[in-house]
Amino acid sequence: MILKNALIYTPENTFKKGDLAVNGSVISEPAAGDSKIFDASGLYAIPGLTDIHLHGCMGHDFCDAAEDTLEAIAAYQARSGVTGFVPASMTFSEKKLSGIFENAAHQEQEAGAMLLGVNMEGPFLAEKKKGAQNARYLMPPDIPMFRRLNAISGGRIKLVTLAPELAGASEFITALKDETVISLGHTEASFETASNAFDLGASHVTHLFNAMPPFNHREPGLIGAAFDHPGVTAELICDGVHVAPAMVRAAFRLFSAERIVLISDSMRATGLDDGDYTLGGQSVHVHGNRATLADGTLAGSVTNLMDCLRNAVAFGIPLADAVQAAAVNPVRVIGESDRLGSLEPGKLANMVLLDKSLNVVKVFIKGKSMV
Length: 371
Description:
eight-stranded mixed beta sheet, six-stranded parallel beta sheet, 26% helix
């Protein structure tokens, strides 16, 4: 199949008019004689988005660990233009987390977005910055526990969040930095503590600005420490609720498009109507695009990653930069850039066609049309 005359997102973070060919599950060089042609004139062709931090959608939550949970999440993501995902757990007991990760280890999606691993958000978090996490199960970083859970998951834990000020955090980072991505978040860490954690091998920030001290001119905190470490990437929830538009623009200026990773942090109400739901075993009320606990604490989002990309563009972020943050950087963080994240020959044909209003026209996963 050949997609003709598309505005193709390039590895140079630009758009260039041209043709794209798909041979089976991968992108290939256009060849003469291919009889299947799709006219993509006036459409953007971008790599499929990858959400490395979401909890659920369409009434399902990763932590349900039900047989159909991941399949339902994968189907919704594919329809939305998200071709890969890394669902996040919540703060639970080791026994509960074991069941959640075991469920992920034994499931392979035959359709929908690709399950690319799991994200362990908790229980190694600071109580005062726990957000919507359940304080009952919070605990200091535990190396043997992580390794037990990772083994149960089949080695699929791509990221783990911790508060670096907790006892044992430095030892945890030193021991595990080569086994998973260590992300700092849900923390009260000072600039010095966070800087030390990055020096030891932490390399990522969980939902920048949220569940951490503010970026202050005398105490720059985690945000300032992340800025000072050029190899560190930072997640950004661009739902219009968690981070104000001006701060979205500031984050892209501060970190550059090469270091921002757009995420949805979506919970089970995403794609559904307003009402009462749950997240991490706690009751959540959803009204409009806001999901909150009873005390008003934000409890994830109800926005998918493609809508976050559209929001970023509406907030003033150039489309190419938003694509880099939602499609390129996430796969680099989780070590999947060899097969995903660009429209180059040899890569998997995971791509999305958007019209000029950024509506999804077509979604391809491994060369197969999903929409």
